[in-house]
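Example with several molecule types.
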Amino acid sequence: MANRPLSPHLQIWKWGPAMLVSILHRVTGDGMALVGLFVMLWWLGALASGPEHYDLFTRCMTSPLGYVVLVGLSWAFFNHMMSGLRHFALDIGAGYELRNNKMWSILSIVIAVVLTIGFWAVICLR
Amino acid sequence: MGNGTSIGRVRGLGSAHSGAHHWLLQRFTAIGNLVLMAWFITSVLLLPDLNYATAREWLSSPIPATAMALLIISTFWHARLGLQVVIEDYVHEDGTKFGVIALLNLAIFAGAAFALFCVVRLALGGA
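Resulting structure tokens for the full complex:
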């Protein structure tokens, strides 16, 4: 392994949308795996443990920091979902033309932000 | 590693040394996540609120409890596959890599077991 050439790391490349969407896919995936699953466990654990525990969970999650976590997780989900759907398209061999690839890289990021705003708009307006 | 054909020369050279099965499972669980998260987000948006009583009543009915159990299995499995790839990419020493992946598996199984137990407890009225 030591004798094989290594590919250059982040700082070598000229940044582009395809690179950003790929990095965000990993960052949002790891974020959800570590933070998102923890929040899910806390939520289910609190729900199964009774009202006092659920009350603590609710108070933490509706604090300013709690909202940062929840909004962050919802954005991470929608972003990971959009870049994941892009991966499904790439898996069947579509979307590699430079112009198309760049367009869908940008669109997946933009659509994720729109979905996140829409999700919270519905929650705030109900 | 063979040296006769071009595929033989590259096979097994990735950081994980194998991967088609892992790759497919990542896709299958991704589809599961997509369907089940669509259910979860729609449900959360349709519920009047997420108070203790509302959330408990919702999750203790049969279909939500089943869907939640499936969501737990699908997301934890997907997370395990994804984190394993990150470990394989960044932890280069074989012994450490084995240790970290072993810890990952223990944590994933523990987390999923706890989450499933909570759903069962809610659904069967233990809480």
